[in-house]
Amino acid sequence: MTRRAPFIVVEGLDRSGKSTQASILCDHLTSLGLPVELFKFPDRRTAIGKMIDSYLRSESDLDDRAIHLLFSANRWELASTISSHLEKGTTIIADRYAFSGIAFSARKGLSYKWCQAPDVGLPAPDLTMFLDIEPDIAQARGGYGTERYEQEEVQRDVRQVFERIEKEMTHAGARWVKIDAGRTQKEVSQDVWVHVQSILDSVHHPVGTLWEEPQEGTLGSIVKV
Fold first, then answer.
1. In DSSP terms, which residues pair with 40 in a beta bridge?
2. Which end of the chain, N or C, is less surrounded by CB atoms within 10 Å?
3. Residues of 89-106 as b/e, b for ≥16 C-beta within 10 angstroms?
4. From the centroid of its chain, how far is CA 11?
5. CA neighbours within 13 Å on the CB side: how many for 73?
6. CA 15, 32, 181: angle at the middle one, nearest 5?
7. Where are the domains of the chain?
8. What is the torsion angle, in degrees rounded to the nearest 10, for the CA atoms of residue 154, residue 158, residue 159 and residue 163?
9. What is the b/e burial string over 142-158, where b = at least 16 CB atoms within 10 angstroms of the residue's CB?
10. What whole-number distance in Å separates Cα of residue 124 and Cα of residue 204?
11. What integer is the mean pLDDT of 155-182?
12. CA 48 → CA 32, 45, 114, 116, 145, distances in Å?
């Protein structure tokens, strides 16, 4: 039987290097002959994703609850594909996931539990790596400020919500690690690989689900709020 592959999520503030590190990791796994797929959320190629892209570029305005639900729907569009790939032995790397959805929307003042609710039942990652960086350092990186949320005050508030998510996920038994993203690209990549390497051959349980009570024989990530 094909061994189930790991689901790896790369999270972090804007300009923390998420996309770069996710791509480097994808290329490294490919070089080792391992099947891997990289997903970027939001996926701006879908019909829903195009609406989100317009909003993020400040080309359109939407109610805070409406845009939150669109982000969640964008993840659900690919949920079954992610689970299928994992079961067939293809490692999945996600550049952002449901945790970003909660962090950015809760920062606006929406209820934390309300923000979490639409993503209950999504495939649960086996490893989440949060690339932590001081917002002022991220601001100094190229391209900062081109999208709606790339403001230092917003990023500081989002970082605080991520800290709450980290505590709750860790308390629930999920594997969540914080990586200092203020270092060189090579140093961060080496740190990322240490954590990924430790789980490549250690995922034996079926794909879990986010914030649902796990069924017998599964390992879901449960967060009680």
1. 95
2. N
3. ebbbbbbbbbbbbbbbbb
4. 5
5. 14
6. 20
7. 7-197
8. 160
9. eebeeeeebeeebbebb
10. 14
11. 96
12. 34, 8, 20, 19, 23
Tracing tokens 């350092």 back to the chain, one arrives at 137
Go through 198-207 and write b for each residue having 16 or more CB atoms within 10 A of its CB, e for each that does not: eebeebeebb
- What is the amino acid identity at position 58? S
Residue 173: partners with Cβ closer than 8 Å, 6 or more residues away: 219, 221, 222
Distance CA 155, CA 175 (A): 23
**CB 91 within 8 Å of CB 29:** yes
User: Rg of the chain over CA atoms, in angstroms?
Assistant: 17
Q: Quick one: 192 exposed, middle or buried, by C-beta within 10 A (0-12, 13-18, 19+)?
A: buried
Cβ pair 220, 212 in contact under 8 A: yes
Burial class (CB in 10 A: 0-12, 13-18, 19+), 28: middle
pLDDT of residue 144: 55
Nearest Cα residue to 92 out of 25, 8, 20, 14: 8
CA 4 to the chain's CA centroid = 20
Asked if the peptide bond before residue 42 counts as cis, ω within 30 degrees of 0, the response is yes
User: pLDDT of 3-44, one tens digit each?
Assistant: 899 999 999 998 899 999 999 999 999 999 999 999 999 999
pTM to 2 decimal places:
0.90
